[in-house]
């Protein structure tokens, strides 16, 4: 499979020329790193003595951060709260080089924040602060105006839905219609636990649980037929060109007009799966926007995600890491 790719350096040069718009649920990921040496006398839980704290862009902001590893032309659209977490999300994105003019701050809404406590290189607990309420009509209107203004400047749009209120059906329909009219590639990472239907998207990237949930198929370990049926049903019901299902260490399933293709999994030691889906949708979009086939783009996305799960924290994959992973995975992808 790898021999059918353009030269890797040429591919990365193509990526660097792309302009990508990332729209979705922005988050702040906070990590509390510490030692665990005893149990609490108050409850059967470990006591973590915090030694340091790290902050990363999360959710759609992490998708943007992954895209920024390969191109400097990234526009981000979403909402945060008028709070310290929201200011930090904007700063982290801006410092990485993103255009944050489409990030709106709301006074009556907290920034979505996920705090993970890590002890002995393992996550002990996660604490979420968030609102899932839909955006106020005034902000939704401003968001549509911003997207209409900037859509013509970009090559592709990533729609990252975490179910935190950024997307209503009206918002999703308006964005996809605009993408269709302007012939822009739209790639959706859906949240199928809520009611938004991404009808007319060019590509959707659900995970195993999401695609089976949509099809009302039971989860059966290792059964390819049910996954293929579920992905075909999603493709038909949403009228999309291509469905790419992420399957963790089992790889990916690509369903497009000419049939189904299975991308082999890459087995690595897994430290943290946080953000692997963000890396996958970022690289899938870059590959498709650069002219690769869905199968080729999925191989790249699969390799990138396999690197990220080997890191602790909300991570990205760099050019050298991705090039190395592509070369190492070549025999399994042919």
Automatic annotation (TrEMBL):
Keywords carried by this UniProt record: Kinase, Transferase
Gene3D superfamilies xrefs: 3.40.1190.20
InterPro entries registered for this protein in UniProt: PfkB_dom, RfaE_dom_I, Ribokinase-like
CDD domains in alphabetical order: RfaE_like
Pfam families assigned to the protein according to its UniProt record, in alphabetical order: PfkB (PF00294)
Primary enzyme class: transferase
Every Carbohydrate kinase PfkB domain range: 19-316
UniProt name for this protein: ADP-heptose synthase / D-glycero-beta-D-manno-heptose 7-phosphate kinase
